């Protein structure tokens, strides 16, 4: 084959595999810096290969292939996979590093209240298994709910339909499977292995990263608690500021995947012959090969009628293989190279060029029937009016910034042999119209005249006039008919025979005639371009009654996906709220944790705005992932504060101590989730374009949500927990 997708698939898989490996290395570094203990680091890291292995086994069982999106899901989840294990390990670690006197008091209060001598064989000073059991029991419930929340967060992806569903459901499946596996590891494997790894105890070592952060947090948190209105106002101001950025983001369906191959569609005049098309194709190939960026150029002229996608010989498709971008000298990117190629090939008059990429072309054609990102469909009844108004829309679209490869599908120009019977002349000779049509059909198309039998094989015999009697208009005009009276009459005496221009084909959607103006998008977002086109067509094009314009292609997918997510994401957030309510038994505390969602939005929106990326379906999925991690941190924080309240501390003191005790796990989970996506964010390999918006949103959102979680949640804890605190006082 002259075009093989295998190299593209291998490169895309290598890109994701490399990102996974780099993310794993970064996670190792973060764990070592925070835990300062090799055994604890190894214990957390075990969750990554086990979770990935179990997820891959489940994917193989259910027939989910290892592709760019499914492996990309594992790359996204690698930071979240260790979240449950990090929280579990950090809590175990804090228990094991307690002084024995503190542990003794803990045993007296929690495990053996009223017993003066609770230290039997099961409760001795050095009972490491007991301490691990105590710590695992304390955080087991919040870890379960936190990971379950992350799984629920990705449920909306299963509701996507069409192309977006095919693209992102494998990602959702791999993430959910990996998170389920990580939950089992966090609740079962980590505590079990900890009893073996920490038999000899753990010596407390202060983390060089945590030392300055704890000092800073101890100083700033009380200030925040005493200036509650200022903190809340600042968070609210940041949230409003992020919402102001949203209209300036721009929207698109999915970022263009750089395939490393160009697909150039060349349209000749409809009446062009095969020899003409072959000659043009060879000349264009030679011109393309003069570019140093080009590895090969191969063309295909037309497609056979017997296939599922027939094309006339006037359509030439050229596949251009490109060298790696690092070796390019004529241009710095694909768009600039396409412009240079179009300029060079435009020396041939009467040719229409449309640039795309092989896979993108097929997907676009599948979506809208045209090989471009955007399809503007004009519906109406009269072909001449469709051609006229379609031409006006085509001219308008070409004048709009951000359009490339604008073209209207051919609605005329096909050379057709037209034979129009003269009914008056036929009546004079007594010849029926059917006789004229039969003559033309038999002479040019042929008539079945029997079969040749060769054993078990049968071959039809078709008879028609020789070439010299049907290869010109004059020859056809000279065909003879016999009248009922026996007189012979020339065809030209009873019919008008001429070559006329007509439509190559009449296309319909939903039983309506239509013409399509196609365009690719360059240098701006799809949503903004369509909005401008809609406004200008409405104001500048005067459409007759019964004629309508519909926008299709990727824009249609984008609108469908966004509409679906706008319904399903709030539903999943509502389900998460219910889970939080069941976990904490308080509407106020569930609402407090859900505050992390708008706090996470701040950084995600700002990251997209600063990086100049558009809000796309991958970006929306990034927000979904971000909500899960942000809520997880809130669960860990509020649970720790509640424990201090249960131990007898007042709300303000409990918020301070609980927040301080959870500083390390919150920073660890956030930094691991963010750094796990840094390789994908910085990657420029094949397929990275699709994953980059997602990584950008998560990394940016984690910065804002973590910073604000550490201050806003402790500050507002008392406000949102008044009902629960009052109930605890009454029960006491």
From TrEMBL:
Which Pfam family, giving just one, matches this sequence?
Answer: ACR_tran
What is an example of a GO molecular function annotated in this UniProt entry? monoatomic cation transmembrane transporter activity
Question: What is the membrane topology listed in the Swiss-Prot or TrEMBL record?
Answer: Multi-pass membrane protein
Transmembrane regions listed in the UniProt entry: 20-36, 43-62, 68-89, 139-159, 171-198, 231-250, 565-584, 591-615, 621-642, 663-682, 694-720
Please verify whether the record's keywords include Membrane.
Answer: yes
Spell out the InterPro entries in the cross-references. Answer: AcrB_DN_DC_subdom (IPR027463), Acrflvin-R (IPR001036), CusA-like (IPR004763)
Q: Where does the UniProt annotation locate this protein?
A: Cell membrane
**What is one term from the GO cellular component aspect held by the record?**
plasma membrane
Which key words are in the record?
Cell membrane, Membrane, Transmembrane, Transmembrane helix, Transport
**NCBIfam families, alphabetized:** 2A0601
Its protein name is Cobalt-zinc-cadmium resistance protein CzcA Cation efflux system protein CusA
């Amino acid at each position: 084959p002259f075009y093989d997708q295998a190299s593209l698939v291998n490169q895309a898989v290598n890109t994701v595999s490399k990102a996974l490996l780099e993310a794993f290395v970064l996670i190792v570094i973060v764990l070592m810096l925070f835990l300062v203990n090799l055994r604890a680091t190894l214990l957390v890291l075990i969750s990554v290969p086990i979770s990935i292995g179990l997820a891959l086994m489940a994917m193989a069982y259910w027939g989910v292939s290892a592709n760019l999106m499914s492996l990309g899901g594992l790359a996204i989840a690698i930071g979240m996979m260790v979240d449950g294990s990090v929280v579990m390990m950090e809590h175990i670690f804090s228990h094991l590093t307690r002084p024995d006197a503190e542990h003794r008091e803990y045993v007296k209060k929690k495990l053996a209240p009223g017993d003066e001598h609770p230290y039997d064989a099961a409760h001795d000073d050095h009972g490491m298994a007991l301490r691990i059991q105590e710590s695992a029991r304390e955080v087991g419930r919040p870890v379960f709910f936190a990971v379950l929340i992350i799984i629920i967060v990705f449920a909306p992806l299963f509701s996507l339909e069409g192309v977006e569903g095919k693209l992102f459901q494998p990602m959702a499946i791999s993430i959910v499977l990996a998170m389920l596996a990580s939950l089992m590891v966090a609740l079962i494997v980590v505590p079990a292995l900890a009893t073996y790894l920490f038999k000899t105890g753990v010596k407390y070592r202060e983390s060089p990263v945590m030392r300055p952060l704890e000092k800073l947090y101890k100083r700033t948190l009380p200030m925040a608690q005493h200036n509650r209105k200022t903190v809340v106002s600042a968070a609210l101001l940041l949230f409003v500021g992020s919402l102001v950025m949203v209209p300036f983001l721009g929207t698109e369906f999915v970022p263009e995947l750089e395939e490393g191959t160009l697909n150039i569609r060349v349209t000749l005049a409809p009446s062009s012959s095969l020899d003409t098309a072959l000659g043009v194709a060879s000349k264009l190939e030679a011109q393309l090969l003069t570019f140093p960026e080009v590895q090969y150029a191969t063309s295909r002229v037309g497609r056979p009628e017997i296939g599922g996608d027939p094309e006339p010989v006037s359509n030439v498709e050229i596949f251009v293989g490109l060298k790696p971008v690092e070796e390019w000298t004529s241009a710095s990117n694909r768009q600039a190279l396409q412009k240079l190629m179009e300029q060079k090939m435009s020396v041939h008059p009467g040719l229409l060029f449309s640039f795309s990429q092989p896979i993108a072309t097929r997907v676009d054609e599948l979506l809208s029937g045209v090989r471009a990102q955007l399809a503007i469909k004009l519906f109406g009844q009269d072909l001449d009016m469709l051609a006229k108004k379609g031409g006006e829309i085509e001219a308008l679209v070409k004048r709009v910034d951000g359009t490339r490869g604008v073209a209207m599908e051919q609605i005329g120009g096909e050379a057709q042999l037209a034979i129009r019977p003269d009914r008056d002349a036929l009546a004079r000779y007594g010849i029926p119209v059917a006789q004229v049509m039969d003559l033309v059909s038999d002479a040019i198309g042929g008539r079945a005249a029997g079969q040749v039998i060769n054993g078990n094989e049968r071959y039809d015999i078709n008879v028609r006039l020789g070439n010299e009697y049907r290869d010109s208009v004059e020859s056809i005009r000279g065909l003879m008919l016999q009248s009922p009276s026996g007189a012979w009459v020339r065809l030209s005496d009873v019919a008008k025979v001429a070559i006329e221009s007509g439509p190559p084909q009449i296309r319909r959607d939903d039983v309506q005639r239509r013409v399509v103006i196609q365009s690719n998008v360059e240098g701006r977002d799809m949503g903004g371009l369509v909005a401008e086109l809609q406004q200008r067509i409405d104001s500048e094009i005067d459409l007759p009654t019964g004629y309508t314009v519909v926008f299709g292609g990727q824009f249609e997918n984008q609108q469908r996906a966004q509409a679906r997510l706008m319904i399903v994401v709030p539903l999943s957030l509502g389900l998460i709220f219910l889970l939080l309510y069941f976990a904490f038994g308080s509407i106020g505390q569930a609402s407090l944790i859900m505050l992390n969602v708008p706090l996470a939005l701040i950084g995600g929106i700002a990251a997209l705005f600063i990086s100049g990326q558009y809000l796309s379906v991958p970006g929306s999925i990034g927000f979904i992932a971000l909500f899960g991690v942000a809520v997880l941190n809130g669960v860990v924080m509020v649970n720790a504060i509640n424990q201090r309240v249960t131990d007898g501390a007042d709300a303000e003191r409990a918020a301070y101590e609980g927040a301080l005790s959870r500083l390390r796990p919150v920073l660890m989970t956030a930094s691991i989730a963010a750094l796990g996506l840094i390789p994908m964010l910085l990657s420029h390999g094949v397929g990275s374009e699709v994953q980059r918006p997602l990584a950008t949103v998560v990394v940016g959102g984690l910065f804002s949500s973590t910073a604000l979680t550490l201050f806003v949640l402790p500050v507002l804890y008392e406000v949102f927990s008044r009902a629960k605190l009052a109930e605890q006082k009454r029960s006491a």
